[in-house]
Specification:
The chain is built from 6 helices and 22 strands. The strands form 3 sheets. It has an 18-stranded antiparallel barrel, surrounded by 4 helices. A two-stranded antiparallel sheet has the order 1-7. The longest helix has 14 residues. It is mainly β and 497 residues long. It has a single domain, classed as Capsule assembly protein Wzi (Porin). Strand 10 and strand 11 form a beta hairpin.
């Protein structure tokens, strides 16, 4: 990874065909729910389908193209507000400082309300994001604190302090006409924006990674590599672990966007990333040809833009074609999502409907250190052995106010990507999908976002009707889940002398 950083710094100063660098718009940005609503309504062109986050210049370009005559007055107001927030007022070497502070109250501590866990508390947060622009290079650093973290069962950092903190984003990116080199931490999602990616999403808390993108606005080769936390192997020794992903992203003229990708999880005592996995090849082929051991994944994403936008994603973890040996009886491991979204006819609302499934042994491996888990959280999905059907609506009843009612039905088996892989002798009795007693959750909820000036109010609340609660036959539970947060923010820009 030190070599990658040195290469990034070297290329940052190289006399290549350069462009003015753009910062990335974090997934947690206040305008993100409004952007996704406008995209679902067909009022805003998606600048980078199957890829999040946006770069600020790409998003601003599409916002500038919004026709004020085809959006409501409330949507037009928030479009202008987002333009003002994203647009740079300084050129050349310059700096931007974004300061924010907030208070919140929640019934739970985990970020995912569907699988709410952790005690409810009143919390407070704050931070400052510094962005520096130097021609084709942009630097960002966003330290912040949030007292919620110490109650979150998924947070791996210090919890014995009054205030827990982390970096939301921290990176350096060198951007040229046909290349983008990146090193640092930034939440990403590969796949349809309505769901988490199957192998790369914002599920883990910001792993530092090296990323490279080569290509045009129509065809790109992309790669990501990062080191995961060590885990003990079967002898108790600490095994080093790494994740490498490659993707070919294609957006031909017309309505389609396609992506095919592969991923590899490497592990071993004293192991380093072999160069053939960093190369733009397929990890499985490199594994077969070199005789080294990895957990390989293959996947695809596709989206067709239209009045009704269709999207699909799939991932193959393991499937046995032959049925000759005991190992061939291993249940297939895969993930799949199909969905659609569009505008509700004769209204200013949008809808999104999707079904997603992840089978029992997906993400697990015979070598238990080769799971795509970063400090306890899956790099794509954090749960396996489940399926979920979700219908969401979104509408803006007034200026700067977005409402999103939701109905979700979740079935969760007793399989778990955090469990050890079953032995070969257990393959015949291991279910492919929905193992054991299946817990069922019906979620009836709504979320809201209101933005006015420097203030943002967000809320999410609903009821979970749970049957076979805790995977106990006949047990039922009705749970009320809710969160509300008020945030103040401001920004300052200036030139760097």
């Amino acid at each position: 990874m030190r070599l990658s950083l040195a290469l990034l710094l070297l290329l940052a100063g190289a006399p290549l065909a350069a462009q003015e660098a753009s910062a990335y718009v974090p997934l947690s940005w206040w305008g993100t729910p409004f952007i996704e609503h406008l995209i679902a309504r067909g009022r805003l062109a998606d600048p980078t389908p199957l890829t999040r986050p946006f770069r600020a210049t790409d998003l601003l370009r599409t916002l500038d193209a919004v026709d004020s005559t085809v959006v409501t007055s409330g949507e037009w107001t928030v479009v202008r507000q987002m333009r003002g927030d994203l647009r740079r007022t300084q050129r050349g070497p310059s700096a931007r400082l974004d300061v924010h502070a907030g208070v919140a109250a929640s019934s739970h501590a985990r970020r995912d309300p569907l699988r709410a866990a952790g005690p409810g508390h009143a919390t407070f947060s704050g931070g400052a994001a510094l962005t520096l622009y130097f021609g084709p290079v942009v630097f960002a650093s966003h330290p912040y604190f949030d007292t919620r973290l110490k109650y979150d069962p998924d947070w791996y950092g210090k919890k014995d302090r009054i205030v827990a903190g982390k970096f939301g984003e921290a990176y350096i990116s060198a951007q040229f006409t046909y290349a983008d080199l990146f090193f640092g931490s930034l939440d990403r999602n590969w796949g349809p924006s309505a769901v988490q990616g199957l192998l790369l999403s914002d599920s883990p808390y910001g792993p530092d990674h090296f990323a490279l993108s080569l290509g045009t606005t129509g065809v790109k080769l992309e790669g990501i590599a990062f080191q995961m936390n060590d885990l003990p192997d079967s002898t108790g020794a600490a095994a080093h672990r790494y994740m490498v992903q490659h993707r070919l992203w294609i957006r031909p003229p017309g309505r389609w966007t396609l992506a095919v990708w592969d991923g590899s999880v490497l592990s071993g005592v004293g192991r380093q990333i072999e160069p053939w996995y960093l190369n733009f090849g397929i990890g499985y082929v490199a594994q077969v040809n070199t005789g080294t051991n990895v957990n390989s994944f293959l996947g695809f994403d596709a989206q067709r833009q239209g009045k009704v936008t269709l999207f699909v994603q799939g991932m193959l973890d393991d499937i046995q074609i032959d049925k000759k040996t005991a190992h061939d009886l291993k249940p297939p491991s895969y993930g799949l999502t199909v969905g659609a979204q569009g505008s509700v006819p004769h209204t200013a609302a949008a809808w999104t409907l999707f079904y997603t499934r992840v089978t029992n042994l997906t993400y697990r491996n015979e070598d238990n250190t080769q799971t795509p888990i970063y400090f306890g959280l899956g790099t794509g999905r954090n749960f396996s052995d489940y399926d979920q059907t979700t219908l969401k609506l979104s509408l803006m009843p007034s200026s700067g106010v977005l409402l999103q009612p939701e109905i979700t039905f979740l079935r969760q088996g007793e399989g778990d990507l955090h469990l050890p892989h079953p032995p070969e002798s257990a393959f015949p009795s291991t279910p492919t999908f929905l193992a054991g007693i299946v817990q069922r959750t019906l979620r009836l909820a709504a979320s809201g976002h209101a933005a006015h000036g420097r203030w943002e109010l967000s809320a999410d609340g609903g009821v979970h009707l749970i049957s076979n609660a805790g995977h106990v036959t006949g047990a039922s539970n009705t749970r009320w889940v809710g969160t509300i947060q008020l945030t103040w923010r401001t920004k300052k820009e200036g030139r760097i002398p």
